[in-house]
Amino acid sequence: MNQDSDFAETALPAQREMAAQAASLRQQRLGQILVALMLAFAAVIAVNVASGRANMNVVMEGAAIALFAFARQRNRRGDVIGAAWILLVTLMVVLTSLMVFGQGLYDEVPMAFPGILVMALMFADGRVFSAVLATMLLVLIGVYALQATGVLPAVPGAVEPSRLLVLAVILCVTAYFVHTITKDLRLLLDQQEADKQALAQSHQQIAELAYHDPLTHLPNRALGLQRLQFLLAEARRGGHQVAVMFLDLDNFKTINDSLGHAAGDELLRQVSERLQACLRTTDMVARLSGDEFLLLLGAVEDERAITTMASKVMEQLAPVFNLQGVEVHASGSLGISVSPRDGDALETLLKHADLAMYQAKAAGRNTFRFFDESMNANMLAHLHLVNALRQALATDALQLYYQPQLALTSGRVIGAEALLRWHHPELGWVPPNEFIPVAESSGLIHDLGTWVLYRACRDARTFRIQGLADLTVAVNVSPLQFRRGNLKELVAQALAAHALPPSALELEITESVLIDDRQRPNEMLDSLHGLGVRIAIDDFGTGYSNLSYLQRYPLHRLKIDRSFTSQVTSSPQAAGIVQAIIEMGHCLRLQLVAEGVEDMATLTRLRNAGCEFGQGFHWSPAIPAEQFVAFARQSRSRPPA
Ligand code: C2E
Ligand code: MG
Ligand code: MG
Predict the structure, then answer these.
(1) What would the mean pLDDT of 71-94 be, rounded to a whole number?
(2) Chosen CATH of 221-371 out of 3.30.1330.10, 2.30.30.40, 3.40.309.10, 3.30.70.270
(3) Distance CA 368, CA 203 (A)
(4) So what's the architecture of 385-635 in CATH?
(5) What is the pLDDT of residues 95-108, one digit of tens each?
(6) Rounded to whole angstroms, how far apart are CA atoms 375 and 357?
(7) What pLDDT digit, counting tens, does each position of 379-410 carry?
(8) Is the CB of 452 under 6 A from ligand 1?
(9) Which of 455, 476, 560, when mutated, tests ligand 1's pocket best, judged by the most ligand atoms within 8 Å of its CB?
C-alpha cells in the first residue's frame, strides 16, 4: 500500500496512466475468468447430475460457484487482490476435495493444476505462485500416500462419457486462460515496441534541437565545437592542418532593421544554403549566433587551399539575395586561424579567428584576414588601455584642459575648447587620438563624455565667477554619445547642476553625425538648439562633401580643420579652400573658427580672409583651468595683436 502511494507520488503522469490501464485490464480479466469458471463448474455439475452422480461433488461444485460469484462481486468493487485470493483458495480446496473423494491420482482434477498456476501468475505475485505450486505438490504427495497406504482406494474408475466431458471442460478452461494471457502478452510486447520507437524518435528530436539551429538547420555552436575538437584530434594524429573561419555578415543589422526580422531570417537561411554549397564533405559550417557562422576545414594541405576556400565563400555571398521580392546585397568579413600554426587549443583558435575577423572588418569589410601575432599584441594593448582608462575615470585621474579661442581682430579670448588629458602612470601622457577610439570601442565613452560635460560646466562656472562672464566653453561630443539619444537630458542636467546658462556651452560634433540619418540628427539638434546651447561642426572640410546639411540644421560655427589652416600660407589650393569655407559660412550666417593656427603669417592670412576666430599653438596649447583664467585675463588687458 505504501509502495503504491509512493509510486503514485513520484511516478510521471504517463507512468501513472500505464499503471492504471494495467490494473483495469487485470480486473477485467479476473472477471472474465470467474465467469468462465462458474460456467465450467456448472457444466461439470450438469455432467455429474446427468450421469446420476448427484453426490458430495455436486455440493462442493455448487459451493465453488457461489464463492466465485462472491469473488466476482468483490472484483467489481475494485478488490482485485481479495477476489484473486478467494478464487485460488476455493479452487485449491474444492479441487483437492474432489480428488480425495474422487479417484485420487487417477482423477481428472490434476489436469486443472497448470491452469490454476497460470491464474496465480496472472493475479498474484511470484510468492503466491510458489505457494500454490508447493500446495499442489503436497496435495499430490498426500493423495499418493493415502492411496499407497490403502486409506483411499487406488483403483482407476471406469471410462465413462462424463469423464471425457469433465476433461474437455478442464482443457477448454485452461486453453481460455492461456489464450487470454498470451493475447495480453502480445499486446504488451507490441505496445513496448511502439513505445521504444517513440522514444527513439524523441531522442532524435532532442538531439536535433540540442545540436542544430532551428532557423537554418545548420549545426549549432555546441556541435560546431565538438566537430572542431574532433578535427583537431585527427589533425594531431595525421600531422595536418585545420582551418577555423569566423564569418560575420557585414550589413545584417541594417537589413534586419530596415526590412524586418522575417527578411533577416530569410537572409540567414539563404546565406547558410550558399555556405553549405561551397563546402567539401569533410568541412562543416555551423551557426554560432545571430549573423555569425563558423566554418571548419579539416585536413587542409596548405594556406593556398584555405585562401581558395575563403575566396569561394566571398564569391558565394556576392550575388544579390532576393528577400521576399526585395533585392539585397550582403557581404561578410572572414577571420581565419590555422592549427597548429596559430594554436592547437580550441579556445585559442576561436579567439584568433575572431580577432582576425575584426581586422577584416577594420580593413573595410567584405574581405578575409588570416590571424597574425601582432593582432594578439594589439588586442592585449587595447584591453590594458581600456582597463587603465576605466580606472583613471573611476579615480578621477583624468584632467580637462582648455585651449583658448580668440577673436582674430581684437586678440581677445572669447572662449576655450575643453580637451581631455590623461597621464598614464607608465605610459605617460596618452594622446586623446589614442584613448578616445578605445573609449568608443569599449563603450566607456558614455561615462567619459558625461564626466567631461560636468567638469566643463563646473569650470565654466568658475570662469564666470572669476570675472570672465562672456566666455563660451566648447565640449567635444562623440558620435556615439549623439547616437544614444539622451544627450539633451545629460546636457540639461550638467548645466543645471552648475547653474550655467546654456549659451555658455558649445557642443562640437563631427560631420559624420549629420549625414547619418539613422541617428536622426534633425530631432537631436533641434532639441539641443531648443535648450539654448550652441553647436559647432568640428574638423570641417574633412568629412563628407554633401553640404546641404549646413542649411538644414541649427548650427552656430564651423571649425576649419587644421589640415587646411596649417597650409594656408604654403599651398594656394589650401588657401582657396579656406577662403571658400569662410565665404560659404558667412553666407549661411555661421561663425568661422580656424583650428591649428601656429604662426603670425597664418593668423594674418586668416584675418584678411575674414575668419573671425582661431585657436592654436600661436597663442597657446590646451592648458589647465587656472592657467587658462590667467591667460584670458591677460588677453583682455593687452592691446589688439
Ligand atoms: P579636436 O577636437 O579637433 O581638437 C583639436 C586638437 O588639435 C587638439 O588635439 C589640440 O591640442 C590640437 N591642436 C590645437 N591647436 C593646435 C596647433 O596649433 N597645432 C597642432 N599641431 N595641434 C593643435 P588633442 O587635444 O590631442 O585632441 C585630439 C582630438 O581628440 C580632438 O580633436 C577631439 O576630437 C578628441 N578629443 C579631445 N578631448 C575630447 C573629449 O573630451 N571628448 C571627445 N569626444 N573627444 C575629445
Ligand atoms: Mg574639437
Ligand atoms: Mg578639430
Answers:
(1) 91
(2) 3.30.70.270
(3) 39
(4) Alpha-Beta Barrel (3.20)
(5) 898 888 888 888 88
(6) 11
(7) 778 888 899 999 999 999 999 999 999 999 99
(8) yes
(9) 476
